[in-house]
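dumping this here before i forget
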Amino acid sequence: MYALIVPASTPFVLLAAVMGLSWWEDRILPTPSAEPVNAPAEAPFAPAAPAQLAELPLVETALTREVAGRRTDGPA
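structure:
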């Protein structure tokens, strides 16, 4: 009997835990003040330069040569 109750109640226990943590976060944890005391001045946003991609080395193996030699226009 208990073997059926535990798996069936697991989602409800997890839901209760998440709801309890949400309540705890909203009611118990301190809220940050609207303006921090020693907040540094915000710097204007300047997007970084795009990353340069390194050139990939060419791969030459027997498998790629074999696949490249196959015909793709249908049966021979």
